[in-house]
Amino acid sequence: MNAIKTDYYLGDCLEVLSRFDTDSFDLIVTSPPYADRRSKTYGGIKPDQYVEWFLPRAAELLRVLKPSGTFILNIKEKAVNGERHTYVIELILEMRKQGWLWTEEFVWHKKNCYPGKWPNRFRDAWERCLQFNKTKDFNMYQEAVMVPMGDWAEKRLKHLSEVDQSRDTSKVGSGFGKNVSNWVDRKMAYPTNVLHLATETGNRNHSAVFPKTLPEWFIKLFTKEDDWVLDPFAGAGTTCQVAQVLSRNSVGIEILPQYYQLAKENIKPTQYLLFEETQDETHYTTGNR
Ligand SMILES: C[S@@+](CC[C@H](N)C(=O)[O-])C[C@H]1O[C@@H](n2cnc3c(N)ncnc32)[C@H](O)[C@@H]1O
Fold first, then answer.
1. Is the beta carbon of 238 within 6 A of some atom in ligand 1?
2. Same domain, 214 and 267
3. Is the CB of 61 under 6 A from ligand 1?
4. For a surface tag, which of 85, 92, 154, 245 has the fewest beta carbons within 10 Å of its beta carbon?
């Protein structure tokens, strides 16, 4: 295994990304500021201007992603005047025109979402993790995220009917089919596209950090050791920290000096620190050689 690098850049990702070569990254995992959220600390982009703000950044991400790579965009539309705003939907449509394939949508179910009461809706306990690709032929390592079969298997697979023992084609003509008997004696199954992960905000010094398990899951699914991961809205640097633990190289870009500083401090202290000799105060790199 080669030395793993973690590089942080201070600045607007739109400008910083222009310094990277085309086709540099295997995976981009990020959570940009949501429209109108946290305007006192960062973000504050108006919902109606969100697509216009994001698109030039999406164009740069499209350029720096390898053809075999994946872009995971964690985002959620807010409610405006009593209904959900449509900027995420509009963004998806515009990104498709830009050349992205909208391959999949994962749901992040925030399983520790605290209780609340609103007059016209229930507490919001999920966010979108949109998957975009440049080509249909992207790298995916499904075995890396398999889950235990669970209790249902013992009961369901004990007595198999005749139908269970051959491919049962969907009655609604969808073209799908299943052969339940394929799963007998298996200990592990493939997961669904719903991730049940608790949020982690305590003690992380940033109001909107990822739980480490979120980038971990996508990094395992879409990259292998020594690959390159990018988080263009790095915040406290969770994506890069996890990438480093999983022996993936990473780049994080953050616009606010206090979070850039925090991300640098969050790098595992056991790892060898290496400051770039360029004296460039907007760029910091570590290696674990
Ligand atoms: C939702 S937070 C990301 C948190 C991150 N996922 C983590 O786990 O710490 C979004 C971050 O993007 C930063 N940001 C906002 N606009 C930016 C831009 N144009 N370029 C780079 N970073 C930006 C904000 O300062 C904020 O820290």
1. yes
2. yes
3. no
4. 154
| Judgement on whether residues 36 and 102 belong to the same structural domain of the protein | yes
* Residue 267 CB–ligand 1 contact under 6 Å: no
Looking at 170, 189, 208, the residue that finishes a domain is 189
Domains contained in the chain, number: 2
Q: What is the block-wise mean pLDDT of the chain (289 residues), using blocks of 10 residues? A: 89 97 98 75 80 98 98 93 94 98 97 86 94 98 93 80 81 79 85 92 74 96 98 96 96 96 78 43 57
Which residues in 208-223 are b (16+ Cβ under 10 Å) and which e? bbbbbebbbbbbbbbb
Task: Judge if 185 and 198 occupy the same domain.
Answer: no
In short, whether 219's Cβ falls inside 6 Å of ligand 1 is: no
Is the beta carbon of 33 within 6 A of some atom in ligand 1? yes
- Atom nearest to 263 CA in ligand 1: 9
Domain boundaries, position 64? 5-146+192-287
Clarify whether residues 173 and 222 are in a common domain: no
Give yes or no: residues 152 and 113 share one domain: no
CB 271 within 8 A of CB 288: yes
Same domain for 73 and 215 = yes
Question: Are 62 and 176 found together in one domain?
Answer: no
Structure confidence at residue 165 (pLDDT) = 81
pTM of the model: 0.89
Residue 15 near ligand 1, beta carbon < 6 Å: no
Q: Which of 194, 19, 41, 1 is nearest to 104 (CA)?
A: 194
Mutate to test the pocket of ligand 1, among 18, 205, 255 (most ligand atoms within 8 A of CB): 255
